[in-house]
Amino acid sequence: GAGVSQTPSNKVTEKGKYVELRCDPISGHTALYWYRQSLGQGPEFLIYFQGTGAADDSGLPNDRFFAVRPEGSVSTLKIQRTERGDSAVYLCASSLSGGGRYEQYFGPGTRLTVT
Amino acid sequence: AQSVTQLDSQVPVFEEAPVELRCNYSSSVSVYLFWYVQYPNQGLQLLLKYLSGSTLVESINGFEAEFNKSQTSFHLRKPSVHISDTAEYFCAVSGDRGSTLGRLYFGRGTQLTVWP
Questions:
Q1: For residue A13, what pLDDT is reported?
Q2: How far is CA B78 from the centre of its chain?
Q3: Which chain B residues have a beta carbon less than 8 Å from that of A30?
Q4: Which of A73, A86, B14, B101 lies 20 to 30 Å from A20, alpha-carbon distance?
């Protein structure tokens, strides 16, 4: 079956603009995660959904970042008033359930560049 | 709090040589341990994992890692590397309690480069 997909693959935007990044998880996976990977770093946790609700959003850096998963499948990460420091690869992952023992399957990522 | 330390940012080795990529973690609760691999221009893929039971876990392509609770380590080893093993390797921890629930904490990664 299909893996996790993310769109767009690349996004270039100007400082101050609003962007939306989309994630399509593996069908049937109830848990969905967003991570951010800056150059030379490992992925950093942003938010975790179990079903439609955000079970843990403690990784969101500030209130410019927001994510939704209204029907428990597709998720959108929204960034308002983008800053150059937001430039990174944004990774989405899904797993069968939310426990730590379940394998997380990663998408290819969206490379965001803020100019 | 949980954290993962990968002691080497880059490891260059010659083909057919053995390799060890080091990973240490700190956690106040029981954890699950993972190694992910990222080949050039590809996404993260799970290489192997420790959940419970035998402390030595193996991957299908010859890598192995041993969970050492007393040393809080989960080093990755391969007795003979191939050029195709060239990739970035990430160690990660997760768990089932509190702030470890579900989320992965990653190290900074180790770039393994295998030379002919």
A1: 97
A2: 12
A3: none
A4: B101
Burial label, B57 (beta-carbon count in 10 A; 0-12, 13-18, 19+): buried
- What does chain A look like in DSSP terms, one character per residue? ----EEE-SEEEE-TT--EEEEEE--TT--EEEEEEE-TTS--EEEEEEETTEEEE-TT--STTEEEE-TTSS-EEEEE-S--GGG-EEEEEEEESSSSTTSPPEE---EEEEE-
Each residue's pLDDT tens digit, A20-53: 999 999 999 999 999 999 998 999 999 999 999 9
Dihedral, B57, B61, B62, B65 alpha carbons, nearest 10? -30
- What Cα–Cα distance (Å) separates residue B29 from each residue in A10, A13, B72, B94? 38, 41, 12, 10
What does R_g of chain A's alpha carbons equal in angstroms? 13
Q: How far apart are alpha carbons B1 and A102 in whole angstroms?
A: 21
**Cβ of B43 and A91 within 8 Å?**
yes
CB atoms within 10 A of CB A70: 9
